[in-house]
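We emphasize that the prediction below concerns an isolated chain of 96 residues; any contacts that depend on oligomerization or on bound cofactors are therefore not represented. The input was used exactly as deposited, without trimming of termini.
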Amino acid sequence: MTLEGAVTEATGLLTLAGNETRPELALAPLQAPDKIQWDIATRVNRPMSHDEETAYERLSAQLQGTAPGRNVEVIGPLKKNGKEFFLEVRDFSVSP
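Result of the prediction step, given as a token string:
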């Protein structure tokens, strides 16, 4: 899933601000079992790349020292824990 919005960090946790169509979402690091991309040649799921594995940490580091609520496009699987949804960060792009 690809979502865009203001990302803020509080006590080491990243959140993506809600809008008129969705609530605020917590962001989380991508977990290997949640990456589902099929490799046609080998007929197995592709392993996580280093960039995918470190995307959450890189996003957090990139946002440090910037104005709160920086607009970011976040790509990753949308997951549900109880009644709450969260988005695992596989890739991202910070708006200039």
